[in-house]
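Researcher: Let's run the pair from yesterday's discussion. Sequence first, then tokens, for each.
Model: Starting with the first of the pair.
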Amino acid sequence: MTSTLLPYPYVFLSYSRIEEVFAKRLEQDLRARGIWVWRDETNINPGSPDWEAAIRDAISHAYAVVLIASPSVIKSLYIKGELNLAKRYHPKHIYPIWIDGTDWSDCVPIDFINTQYIDMRREKYGAGLHTLINALKRVEASSGQNAGINQRDIVINQQRTSQHVTPIYTTSPARKFSRALLINGIIVAIVLLGIIGAVIYKSSAQQITSNQLTPSTTASMTSTQSGQSSPQLNQSYTGTTSGFANGFLTLSLVSQDQLGNVSLGVTFTLADNNKQANYTCQGKVTNDRHIALQCHQIDAQNFMLDIEGVIFQDGHMQGTMTATDSSDPNYHHNYTWNAK
């Protein structure tokens, strides 16, 4: 087997490699709320001889597909292939989420331009996550009910078949055994129908309860369950960048308060020409170990960096970075970075 299919209903996550940090964050947040996610890096066994077969298998067995949409999507032939398969297996259960870019039409293939999407860019992440979870919960509950109905039909058909067995005209012990077997089969079928009915009822009740939760209630529950404080940053981090151009990154902590608000100095150096730019950054470190910064170049305020990442338990950070120029709308460069 080239892939590991989850033993639970799951959603398939379609994303470009440059959005890997966001994909990991989304996977963690969905799993924390009871939604299982299939992602290639997590669920394809190392050394699998047929990677494409694993992707096909995973999409066909999912109950929904979530597309992480950004400007990098339209450059990926693999994502276009995954979406074609998703339209074949799940035409009504494809959920695009928009995480980066200024124009939606530049972030998806042509046939998805008019598709309704969920905006999860920067500060809209929390509200968008709530909308996505509600949508996926409804689909998961519906797929569970359909599976129960299909299983019930199988049991009924088997029961009808058993009821039309040709009678055995004999007075031997074999006849008594056949009758006992038939009666036991009917009893088992009735018990299975009762169990399936109970499962469907429970799933419907959970669905109703989920829909009645308001965003404020959900946020309150999440906050209460976490019970964690934001991690304290080190005084400095150094690392590398890749993407539009390779380079080096240095982050220096200026201040951090108890609420996770941070101020940092960032130096970004391009590897090919040693060109260096210094930035002042303001942002926040969240309880779930995510960091988001907005930076302005010290000697050229029109040049900006938007930095997002994850702080791992061992202390290192990694994430994505977007460089823009407020005076030039065509200046938009994406990077990934690692620092420790």
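Model: Moving on to the second of the pair.
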Amino acid sequence: MKFLETIRLTAYEVEYIDQRQAKPRTIRRETVVLDSDRLAALERLGMRPAGYIMQQFEREGYTVANIRRGESINARVDLSALWDETQQEIKAEQFTALAARLNEKLGGGSDADA
């Protein structure tokens, strides 16, 4: 049985500069997507989406030059498929972490073989 959820997504085009980069600095572009629940929460907090996005970029050390609101779309999500996909990703992450720990225990000093 399929359980479908419709979520509303709104894209924002962000132009930003990495101040740590040597001059002349490149203006980079990134698309940030917010869902309707996050937008509603921001509204309840009295924040505008552009202000929130700017805050997040500045926290990472970037200077935002421009934010433009893009399209909004409705996306249908199959919750069962999303659940299965997420479980597979979690198992893959756990396997990778386990393999890294085993590698460290068994021969993290493989440089001695060289």
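Researcher: Give me one sentence on the second I can quote.
Model: The beta strands are 4-18, 27-35, 62-78.
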